[in-house]
Specification:
The protein is of the alpha/beta class. It has 3 domains: about 5-200, Rossmann fold; about 210-265, Adenine nucleotide alpha hydrolases-like domains (SH3 type barrels); about 270-345, Elongation Factor Tu (Ef-tu), domain 3 (Beta Barrel), CATH 2.40.30. The chain is about 25% helix and about 30% strand. The relative contact order is 0.13.
């Protein structure tokens, strides 16, 4: 019998992933990561619901204390980024360094399993021609989570299963009801786990970063207002600036050296290119010449045509067909060929 370890967060998606594999005859073991103290669906409440699901399915449940790993790889990473004037993307970093890699290692060394499964909406395919695992978009494009999985290695993809990749969210809810799972009607989590635990990203960051008043200025350096810390702002932000102007203004740059938030109109916030570092090539080998693809510069952003150009320092230059608004250092740029995720990396300053 095939043995698989399912990462259980306490939500409906991971619950259905476990129930589906159990129903298919797999020997399923539940595994929950304790990421941080406090409330939140991925912490105290989530662990309780995950334990209930394991009781309902009559499968073992393991809890691993991952708080130190989460603190070092996510909390410290976020704080350092915001202090430097960038807006880090924690989810892809968390998936690789906190969740998938440690879970697969634990499954192999402690539980005698070679596969892990999660409730992510994504698909995996093995291409015999290239001898590589490919990461494919989910059937439900509204729920597709491949953007957050771009940093997974070939080894991690080889050891992972995504049971929900070929179904819609509605089908997942229906399956949860059919299996009479405790989580069948559980509300969907809409925020990062840190936001759920602390109430808002601002509250979380204010615990770690001292508020330091500075100027909000326009592109000519004219002072338009004051801020209480550049970590409260992100590129492309319009709301919450606290300044009056004849036309809508957006954050176009953060200056940590001068402690300034720089604003401008939407046109001034567009860029035709940017540099990407820490690139992970997923479904294809790293190219030595420019390639054509479609790229997302945010999770909910529409994919747009782009030329991806290798640079000498292992970075890549993205040149868009048209200027893109709100290119944000610290966020991920992820590129696709249709439904196939080719690769991705972290945006540096345009």
């Amino acid at each position: 019998m095939n043995k698989v370890v399912v990462g259980l967060s306490g939500g409906v998606d991971s619950s259905v992933a476990a129930a589906t594999l159990h129903h298919q005859g797999y020997e399923v073991i539940g595994l929950t990561l304790w990421l941080m103290k406090g409330k939140g669906q991925c912490c105290s409440e989530g662990m309780v619901d995950a334990a209930r699901i394991c009781e309902e399915l009559n499968i073992p449940h393991h809890v691993v204390d991952s708080r130190e790993v989460f603190q070092a790889n996510i909390v410290d990473y976020l704080v350092a980024g915001y202090e430097a004037g960038v807006t880090p993307l924690p989810c892809s970093q968390c998936n690789r360094t906190v969740k998938f890699a440690p879970m697969l290692e634990y499954a192999r060394e402690k539980l005698g399993a070679n596969k892990i499964a999660t409730g992510h909406y994504a698909r995996i395919n093995y291409d015999k021609t290239t001898e590589r695992y490919q990461l494919l978009r989910a059937v439900d494009r509204n729920k597709d989570q491949t953007y957050f999985l771009y940093d997974l290695t070939q080894e991690l993809l080889a050891g992972s299963v995504f049971p929900l990749g070929d179904r819609t969210k509605e089908e997942t809810r229906k399956t949860a009801s059919e299996f009479a799972l405790t989580t069948a009607d559980k509300p969907e989590s809409q925020d990062l786990c840190l936001i759920e635990a602390h109430g808002s990203m601002r509250t979380f960051l204010d615990r770690y970063i001292e508020r330091k008043e500075g100027d909000i200025v326009d592109l000519e350096g004219k002072v338009l207002g004051k801020h209480q810390g550049i970590h409260h702002y992100t590129i492309g932000q319009r709301k919450g600036l606290g300044i009056a102007a004849a036309e809508p203004l957006y954050v176009v740059k953060l200056d940590p050296v001068m402690n300034r938030v720089i604003v401008g109109d939407r046109t001034s916030g567009g860029n035709i290119e940017c540099t990407v570092s820490r690139v992970n090539w997923v479904s294809i080998a790293e190219p030595s010449t420019p390639i054509r693809a479609e790229v997302q510069i945010r999770y909910r952003a529409k994919p747009v045509p782009v030329n991806i150009i290798p640079l000498e320092d292992d970075n890549f230059r993205l040149v868009f067909d048209e200027p893109q608004f709100g290119i944000t250092p610290g966020q991920a740029a992820v590129w696709y060929d249709g439904e196939v995720l080719l690769g991705g990396g972290i945006i540096k300053r345009p």
